[in-house]
Design goal:
Length: about 60
């Protein structure tokens, strides 16, 4: 598997994790640990998207 495919697979996994974390969010009184996890996942997602764009620009 090449680097682009690996990054796309990681991106799919993180997207699934984000969806699962968002399901844990209550309508009111969001817990800080859940929000922190969501922010970290979104940061990871952004980093992978940036890497994919860099690979495509080559």
């Amino acid at each position: 598997m090449d680097q682009k495919q690996e990054l796309q697979k990681k991106l799919e996994e993180i997207d699934k994790q984000i969806q699962e974390t968002e399901k844990q969010l209550p309508a009111h009184s969001v817990k800080p640990p859940i929000m922190q996890e969501l922010f970290e996942l979104e940061d990871q997602r952004e980093a992978i998207v940036a890497q994919l764009k860099e690979l495509e620009a080559r």
